[in-house]
Amino acid sequence: MKEKVIKRVKTVLESPKSDNGILPAESSPLKPYRLAHTSGDEKTVIDVQGLLVGGPQVVIMAGPCSVENEEQITLIAKAVKEAGGTVLRGGAFKPRTGPYDFQGLGKRGLQLLQKAARSTGLRSITEVMDPRDVDLIVEYADILQIGARNMQNYTLLREVGRTKHPVLLKRGMHSTYKEFLLAAEYILTGGNANVMLCERGIRTHVTELRFTLDLNAVPYLQNETHLPIIVDPSHGTGRRDLVPAMSRAAIAAGADGLLIECHIDPDKSISDAEQAISIEALNQLMREINTIAGAIGRTVAT
Length: 302
Description:
This protein is an alpha/beta fold.
């Protein structure tokens, strides 16, 4: 499927345009996200260092919100591996609402994340916030994550589209499905077909939770796009006691993977402590996910 996407990219970019660079109306398809839109039953499967995302196996990405120090990320990497996860998450550059909050360790955080992932045989994912940091992060991380706040940062989207590196694009907290897919389109038109979509919750009138996890997005997007769909139940709820239930629900809904925050001592997590689950909770959740995946004809990648 990925080869077909690349071919469609070339076709779109080579189409005759008007003087202002816009495709004429008669050449425009019914869907404005012409590359992200599904064509038949074929789905894009992304190869992340031998790990296939979007295929029959469910992929579990887990780790701390931020890389705090070498001991912390090393211990968590070992725990994620033992639990059955395949991708280590950890922020080196952190977008924080408050300017005085911990902003991450930067390049040192990237180095620690890479070291912990490689020592355990895990792949790694970390957030990129600035177009100027893309080349640096590509050196260290296996997946580039674009956070909700940057979903419509078109300069950043174009820059990661220039690479062929796997990208996980999170839905903006106020964004429609159409806007979400159009954001993915920016990456695809750059020639990067390795795009995963991540539902991470939206802002609604519900004030009791950090966000409302929109699991309608999973089946809707699967009918609308060929790209893999990942769910983030940690940001989607903001409460660790709700993460297991929403993780189970996401797998049952057909998600291709989960992005989960966990910590060796959740209460002491420097960032997003309220939504980080313990290692014990992660182990229990992995057992439950295996059961649910089996019930719908899937397995969990190891």
